[in-house]
Every structure is written in structure tokens, then in C-alpha cells.
Amino acid sequence: MNAADARAYANQWDGAYIASFEPQDIASLKQMYDIVKAVGGATKDPPDSAFDPGPYTRSEADQVTLALSFVLPVVPKLEAIISLMLLRS
Questions:
Q1: DSSP letters of 11-73?
Q2: Interval 17-73: pLDDT, tens
């Protein structure tokens, strides 16, 4: 892959590789599996653990914690800046 194509591919990454495991996503996956099974593409049901949202939920919580760890130290500085701006106006 040449450099221009590689950059074009990389620029699509954030939009193309989005995954979620919300209840509606799990319901959709189960429905797709039922279709596959109905036409003979699968012979048995998947284990319940295949649809366990725990790892996804923990990942989401970790992202919020990480975001807050960057934002919270800045808040007092922002409050001071806003206070100064209000005093000057």
C-alpha cells in the first residue's frame, strides 16, 4: 500500500471501527444468529457468555475514568479564568 492510500485508510479508522454492546446491539446479534441457525448455518445455540456485556461495560467505565482524570485537574484553572473574565467585564 502506498503512503497516500495508507493515510486515506488510517483517516477512516475512527469512523469505521466503532463497536458497542448495548442491549439493542445484543438483541440484534441474537436475532442475526437466529436467522443463521434457521437456515442451517449453525446447529446449536451460543453460550450466554457470548453475549455478556460485562467487559464492554467495564471498558466504557474505564474510558469515563480516564477522561475525568484529564479534565478534573483543569477545572480549578478554568474556574479561575472564568472568574477573571467575569471581573473584567
A1: HTHHHH------HHHHHHHHHHHHHHHHTTS-SSPPPGGGG--HHHHHHHHHHHHHHHHHHGG
A2: 667 788 998 999 899 999 999 999 889 998 888 889 888 888 777 776 656 665 566
Give the contacts of 45 (CB within 8 A, at least 6 positions apart).
Answer: 33, 37
Cα distance between residue 45 and residue 38, in whole Å: 11
Grid cell digits, residue 21 = 454492546
Q: Can you state the percent helix, strand and coil of the chain, rounding each to 5? A: 75, 0, 25
Which three cell numbers, joined as nine digits, stand for 72?
Answer: 478534573
pLDDT in tens, 58-79: 877 777 665 666 556 665 666 6
Q: What is this structure's pTM?
A: 0.53
Contact 18, 50 (CB under 8 A): no
